[in-house]
Structure formats: C-alpha cells, structure tokens
Amino acid sequence: MALNSEKEQLQLQRRLRDLADKSYRQNLFTFSGFLGLAELELYYGMERELDFAAPALFGGDEGAERKMIRFGSPEELGYEEAYPISCIHAKPLMLKFAEALSHRDFLGALMNLGIERSCIGDIRAGRDGGYFYCQSSMAPYICENLTQIKHTHVSCEVVEQMEEMEADKPKEEEVQVSSLRIDGCLSKLYKLSRAESLALFQSAKVYVDGRLVENNSRLLKAGEVVNVRGYGKFIFTGVKYETKKGKLCLGMQVYR
C-alpha cells in the first residue's frame, strides 16, 4: 500500500490495529504485508499504541529495507512462528543473451502478474538475474508464472537466502564537510545546492535507519544507514581524519 492520501494512511492504521487486536485476543501470531519506508514511519508513530501486542519487524535479513510486522510474543504464546517470508532466485535461462535487469524491471514483471506491492519485499537485481523476498503464500504462484523479465526469459526457485549481487556492493567514498550535519553531508555526497538539500527534507525523502528525518541539522552518527529517495542510500562509517583547515573527512559506503 502506497500512502498517497490521508485515506490510505487511515486504512493502514486501521489494518495494523486490527492485526494487533486479533493477536492479543486470540493468542496467535499475526503478520502485516511488507511495508516500505513511508509505511514504516506511520507504524513508528503508532508504536506505543500497539505495544500491547509485542510487535517486531523483519524483512528476510537484517539489512532488509522493506519489513513485515509480526504481532505476538513468543514468550507469552509459548511457541515461535517464523515470518511467512520466502526468498526467490530468478535466473536467466540463457545467460549469454541476458540483459542487466534492474529493480524496476523485476518489480514491473511482478506487478504484471497481478501481485500487490505488499506481497514483495526487497529486490536485488543484476546481470545474472536477481533475488527477491515475497510472502510465502505467493512463492508457488510466482515460481510458476514469472517466466520473463523485460526481454529475458527466467526460471524461478525458492532458495534459503539471497546472495550478494555485484550491483549491491557499496562504493567506498570520502567527503569533506565542516560538521556532521546531515544536510551538509547530503550536499557534498550528491553534489546538491543548499536549497536542493533542504528540499529533500521538506518533501520527506530522507530516512535514517528507516525513520523519517525532518530536521536537516541533525548530526550523523557512525554506523547509521541513510536512505535518500531518488538518490540511493549510504552508510556513514565515521570520521576518518580532520584536515589542517578543520574540515572533517567522512567515510561513506555508497549504494547508487
């Protein structure tokens, strides 16, 4: 569900409340679909309200951006239930003729099968095909019907976990800034003017560790993951050194 209107926000809030209530009243685990950054931000605003149902997040692996919410406490229920998430590997039938497939190509092919966005988690794509997470109930249908992505014919199978794609490897970069203010870091890294950087915050396009950041003067901390809609993401690895002129040289692992 994309939150394009107040009505859609209210629908998601109602859905999360219903899942939490059902889990608590019936003593069972309930699960949301995959939620994107904007949807997760709405959930974070409800976190205290839903705390009675012991919500927890997972997206298939620790680094996943899109996540499911599971309601229910294993300690209170007396058992554990895994998240209904499957990993699918889609590989070209003839590698020598395969295209370099993108995230958009994969998502478009899945949407053309009539699959809702909430059924699909993170996607990692490249020359050799790609991997993606999906709701386990959809895995058999996808494996049977996803036979072509763009102009490339593929076969699909459920696998234990994703393998790293070449395109997913970050590029080590350095930027020199006067402070750890996030707006200055974005301006340097993405070569933006001060006004362009500020506009990203005003249009709710900057997330740190999955949470929306509206304060453009916020200071970055080592290890934080910054997502910038339309630009990609990076991990701030820390201050590498200070120049003679007092500038800070920052280390970044950048995903373009």
Task: Describe this entry's structure for a reader.
The chain has 256 residues and is of the alpha+beta class. The strands form three sheets. It has a six-stranded antiparallel β-sheet, with helices on both faces. A five-stranded antiparallel β-sheet has the order 5-6-4-8-7. Helix 1 packs across helix 2 and helix 6 packs across helix 7. 29% of the residues are buried. The mean pLDDT is 93.
Key words describing this protein structure:
single chain; 256 residues; alpha+beta; Ribosomal Protein S8, Chain: A, domain 1; Alpha-Beta Plaits; Structural Genomics Hypothetical 15.5 Kd Protein In mrcA-pckA Intergenic Region, Chain A; 3 domains; 6-stranded antiparallel sheet; 5-stranded antiparallel sheet; 7 helices
Task: Summarize it.
With 256 residues, the chain is α+β, with helices and mostly antiparallel strands.
Task: Name the CATH homologous superfamily of the largest domain.
Answer: RNA-binding S4 domain
Q: What does the main sheet amount to?
A: 6 strands, antiparallel
| β-strand amount | 25-35%
Cα Rg = 20 Å
- The unreliable regions are none
Instruction: Enumerate how many helices there are, as a single number.
Output: 7
In terms of topology, how is this protein built?
Layout lengths: L5 H21 L3 E2 L5 H14 L5 E3 L9 E4 L2 H4 L7 E8 L10 H9 L8 E7 L2 E7 L3 H7 L2 E2 L2 E8 L11 E7 L4 H9 L3 H9 L3 E3 L2 E2 L12 E4 L3 E11 L5 E8 L1
Antiparallel strand pairs: 1-3, 2-3, 4-6, 4-8, 5-6, 7-8, 9-14, 10-11, 10-12, 12-13, 13-14
Helix pairs in contact: 1-2, 6-7
